[in-house]
Amino acid sequence: EVQLVQSGAERRNPGAPAKVSCKALGYTFTSYYIDWARQAPGQGLEWRGRIDPENTGTKYARNFQDRVTFAADTSTNTAYEELTSLRIEDTAVYYCPTRGDSGDYWGQGTPVTVSV
Fold it and tell me: 10 φ, ψ to 5°?
């Protein structure tokens, strides 16, 4: 069974960094891209980019490429999204979906709250 298990909620001050992890279970980690998306309170889902765990190739959505870095560790089957210089408006639930042969799979979401 494909599962994506994300790290727990984070609370940060503006300007601080944050790191969200996404552990892949039940399939070969390098078989599928890992996408990253977020949903801010009262807003729609926003795609942020993706990483190919097989070669760590990345693609970033234009609005986020300056403050976001994706990584993948094949020794632990875990993908990471690192965020820098957090802003209040980065408050959202962060997700790591993947599209496998049998459908789309989503992590449970990681709430990141940025506040003073």
Answer: -130, 145
Q: pLDDT tens across 68-96, in order?
A: 999 999 999 999 999 999 999 999 999 99
Reported in sequence order, the residue ranges of the chain that DSSP labels E, i.e. its strands, are 3-6, 10-12, 18-25, 34-39, 45-52, 57-60, 68-73, 78-83, 92-95, 98-100, 103-105, 110-114
Contact status, residue 92 vs residue 83, Cβ threshold 8 Å:
no
Whether 98 contacts 32, CB under 8 Å? yes
Measured in whole angstroms, the distance separating CA 88 from the mean position of its chain's CA atoms is: 18
The pLDDT tens digits of the residues spanning 29-43 come to 999 999 999 999 999
